[in-house]
Design brief:
Peroxidase, domain 2; 6 strands; 16 helices; binds protoporphyrin IX containing FE; binds 2-acetamido-2-deoxy-beta-D-glucopyranose; 4-stranded antiparallel sheet
Length: 410
């Protein structure tokens, strides 16, 4: 049985704060989006300020304007799956590729410090940067490997991963922080640090800054030479998938059930837009088609709070709720505690309780933050090496949103 506790009352009190109204017109420049959100009692200040652009990254016109199928970038080159299930923890410096934690110790020794300065100040100005960065990193790695393909901006000549619908809400602040980091790096050591490594390092800096563990990040990734708009939808997990289907995706890429559950702990940060969980709270029907006021696996107070908060979401699709209603801006194991209590936001979160393959891990991480941090660290390190390109398989981009030479060169 689900364990309920007094914290539920706190959660209900927090519901006003759980909802962020993010208004960002498509015409707004990258990362300049504005968010107004009600900061209720007890919400960490950091989590309350928000600057997150839903789909503001790229002028729509550019992507929409006349591009025939003939001008597309070749379907993403098959990603070499380097980090298989049995691959030892990579820090050892062996394969995959030639990644190593001190890859830049001679060529750009201050690389991490430079990136940290940029992203930390971005995070202080816009506290949703951390969540955005983590999600961008996950999407980059999960689609054709950690190769910065997700950063390529679509132009009128070629589509890219950013064109895919699922990328719509990848926040502009994370992209902006990467662009700024890269500019600073190019001043100090031009042409040396890849955008894929910037993403990996920036993600770690932000996980640590929000209270999470500092895990090893081997370096030396090259940036991709292609980015396909069709790749993300086939390979990224959706909010309406079953846990079984999500596990299939992870297992197919060489990740274990445990790694899937640990990585999902990233939902301790950030938001989801109402449409991602609307089917749980409006016109709900169970598998047999039987209607109910809301998904019965949800805590009723939580469900009602979300119903109220998302009431206008069809008119205003930018309304979003915190993934972790209890400690939204802190990287901790509260995400799992929430799941035990029916406070998981996405059905994919909550279903990890129903599914007996994942429930023991949810219980373990909910009970033991150290266990979560240890497993998250190892899983992030492995994710960060998934499908990486080294040597001639890639390049060091001069700017992260364009190939040095190719159809997306701006
Ligand atoms: C296990 C399957 C997963 C599913 C089905 C899933 C789905 C989603 C969805 C639907 C959103 C809301 C997007 C929006 O409305 O803008 C979201 C947000 C997020 N996801 Fe996941 N995700 C999964 C795994 C992961 C993993 C492995 C990571 C990172 C390691 C991650 C990091 C995040 C973060 C940080 C956010 C918040 C983004 C923000 O506030 O800008 N997710 N995810
Ligand atoms: C999941 O959502 C997508 C788009 O939001 C939709 O096209 C698809 O049919 C849905 N899949 C399931 C299994 O409901
Ligand atoms: C929590 O997990 C860590 C790491 O697995 C372990 O060393 C520790 O004994 C656990 N603590 C408790 C109270 O079970
Ligand atoms: C299919 C789709 O809506 N793609 C969008 C993805 O995001 C980019 C950048 O915001 C848009 O230009 C695309 O139209």
């Amino acid at each position: 049985m689900r364990r309920l506790s007094l914290l539920l009352l706190a959660a209900a009190a927090l519901l006003a704060a759980a909802v962020a109204v993010v208004r960002a017109g498509p015409e707004m420049p990258q990362a300049a989006s504005v968010a107004g959100m009600g900061a209720g009692p007890g919400v960490p200040q950091a989590a309350a300020a928000a600057g997150m652009g839903a789909g503001t990254q790229v002028p729509k016109a550019a992507a929409a304007a006349g591009m025939g199928a003939g001008t597309q970038v070749p379907q993403a080159a098959a990603a070499g799956v380097l980090a298989g299930p049995g691959v030892p923890q990579a820090a050892a410096g062996g394969p995959p590729g030639k990644l190593s934690p001190d890859f830049y110790s001679q060529t750009c020794p201050r690389a991490e410090r430079i990136i940290a300065e940029v992203v930390q100040s971005k995070q202080m100005a816009n506290p949703t940067t951390a969540a955005g960065m983590l999600r961008v990193f996950f999407h980059d790695c999960f689609v054709t490997g950690c190769d910065a393909s997700v950063l390529i901006a679509p132009t009128r000549f070629a589509k890219s991963e950013k064109d895919a619908e699922i990328n719509h809400s990848l926040p502009g602040d994370a992209f902006d922080a990467v662009v700024r980091s890269k500019l600073a790096l190019e001043l100090e050591c031009p042409g040396v640090v890849s955008c894929a490594d910037v993403l990996a390092l920036a993600s770690r800096v932000l996980v640590t800054m929000t209270g999470g563990p500092r895990y090893p990040v081997p370096l030396g990734r090259k940036d991709s030479l292609s980015s396909s708009p069709t790749a993300p939808d086939v390979e990224l997990p959706h909010s309406n998938f079953t846990v079984g289907r999500i596990l299939e995706l992870f297992l197919a890429k060489g990740f274990t059930v445990q790694e899937m559950v640990a990585l999902s702990g990233a939902h301790t940060l950030g938001f989801s837009h109402c449409q991602e969980f609307a089917s749980r709270i409006y016109n709900y029907r169970d598998k047999t088609g039987k209607p109910a006021p809301f998904d019965p696996t949800m805590n009723p107070g939580y469900a009602k709070g979300l119903q109220a908060a998302c009431k206008e979401y069809l008119k205003d699709p930018t309304i979003a709720a915190f993934n972790d209603v209890m400690t939204p801006g802190k990287f901790d194991n509260m995400y799992y505690v929430n799941i035990e209590r029916g406070l998981g936001l996405l059905s994919t979160d909550e279903d990890m309780w129903s599914d007996l393959r994942t429930r023991p891990l949810v219980e373990r991480y909910a009970a033991n933050n150290t266990a979560f941090f240890d497993d998250f660290s190892r899983a992030m390190e492995k994710l960060s090496m998934y499908g990486v390109k080294t040597g001639a398989d890639g390049e060091i981009r001069r700017r992260c949103d364009a190939y040095n030479d190719g159809p997306n060169t701006v």
